[in-house]
Amino acid sequence: MKYLVLMFLMFAFMPVSAQQTDCDDAKKRLVEADQKLNDWAGLKRYEAANKKVMPSKPDENRVVFIGDSITDIWDENGFGGFFPGRPYINRGIGGQTTPQMLLRFRADVID
Fold first, then answer.
1. Backbone angles phi, psi at 67, to 5 degrees
2. Range 45-69 average pLDDT
3. Of the candidates 55, 41, 57, 56, which has an alpha carbon nearest to the alpha carbon of residue 91?
4. How far lies 2's CA from each of 9, 14, 80, in Å?
5. Can you list the alpha helix ranges (DSSP code H) found in the chain?
6. C-alpha angle with apex 87: 85 to 88, nearest 5 degrees?
7. What is the distance, to the nearest Å, from the Cα of residue 83 to the centroid of all Cα atoms in its chain?
8. Neighbours of 93 (CB within 10 A)
9. pTM, 2 dp
10. For residues 88 and 10, what is the distance between their CA atoms, to the nearest angstrom?
11. What is the b/e burial string over 55-73, where b = at least 16 CB atoms within 10 angstroms of the residue's CB?
12. Picking from 42-56, 73-87, 92-106, which range would have the lowest pLDDT averaged per residue?
């Protein structure tokens, strides 16, 4: 009888913890979806970094890389760290498509 009660209690509380995890995952997905709806093009991703960019020097050839996940990770340690010491700027956002990049082109590249 003790084992039956113990098994009942174990099974009774298992779905609650699983539901809590599912609920946390659902909340996280809702927050991500809300952020995507409010900033579909990702304009806020580099907003602060863009304000810190100084004007280029007269003889400086600056390059801005804009793209998706491949561009997004090129300057991270372990994924390449390409172009050390160069005045190149990375503005990649993983998962982006051309329409999204075009919307943020002025803010992240031209300005």
1. 180, -155
2. 91
3. 41
4. 11, 18, 60
5. 2-38, 47-52, 69-72, 98-105
6. 105
7. 22
8. 19
9. 0.66
10. 57
11. eeeeeeeeeebbbbeebbe
12. 73-87
